[in-house]
Amino acid sequence: MPFGQDRQMFPVDLSCAKCGAHISELPFQPSGDRKVYCSECNRAFWQDKRANDRGGFGGGRPRGPRQMFQVNLTCADCGKAITELPFEPSGDKPVYCTDCLRARKSR
Ligand SMILES: [Zn+2]
Ligand SMILES: [Zn+2]
Question: Which of 26, 51, 63, 89 would suit a FRET pair with 14, their CA atoms being 20 to 30 Å apart?
Answer without folding.
Answer: 51
